[in-house]
Amino acid sequence: MIYKLSTYSTYTDVKLVSLLVEGDRLAFDEIYERYWKRLYNDTYKRLKSIEKIEEIVQDVFSNLWTSRGKRNIQNIYPYLLTAVRYQVFMLYKKGKSTPEFEEPLEHMILSSLQADSLFNEKELKGIITFWMALQPDKRRAIFQMKYVDEKSTREISEVLGISQKTVQNQLLTSFSSLRDFLSKAMIILSFCPLK
Predict the structure, then answer these.
(1) CA-CA distance, 78 to 85, in Å (whole number)?
(2) What is the span of the domain harbouring residue 106?
(3) What is the mean pLDDT of each run of 10 residues along the chain (195 residues)?
(4) How many domains in the chain?
(5) C-alpha span between 35 and 100 (Å, rounded)
(6) Residues 77-110, buried b or exposed e (16+ Cβ, 10 A)?
(7) What keywords is this UniProt entry annotated with (predicted)?
(8) CA-to-CA distance for 109 and 50, rounded, in angstroms?
(9) Is the pTM of this model over 0.85?
């Protein structure tokens, strides 16, 4: 048994996913050992509740096992990370604890996508960059300061010399526009996937 586990630790992610799909419990255990801590740490940046973090990570891995034959997983870690972030987003959504313009960018994006969406992280960044180029100068600057430079709405209002309410309104407009743009891009990509 120990020999078998150490053998699994030498397997690539692709090999492990292939074995997982066939129902290999040891492959699942290796994926869990390889990634649970990274997922936990990533989630801790967004939620400070250890109980909720453990529940989310556990749910994602449980779902990975129970739906192992139904998913087409190309890259296991990005898949798991997106699934975890989607669960965090759902908690934000249920709790309505923050206004939309205060949500982390990945939560905003995930609101219009599913965990196993057509987009990978690189494609998403490209689509968002393209969307930003289409925005009016002020809106683009506000969006950049909020989601790239991680400034607060108060800091943005001071830098640009506009009211905080104007900043919030611009972010809400951006939020709606980006969600709409991503939804349309997803429809287009379902017919013509990016290479």
Answers:
(1) 10
(2) 98-195
(3) 66 92 92 91 78 88 87 85 83 59 51 48 74 88 84 88 87 81 68 48
(4) 2
(5) 30
(6) eebbbbbbbbbbbebbeeeeeeebbebbbbbbbb
(7) Sigma factor, Transcription, Transcription regulation
(8) 24
(9) no
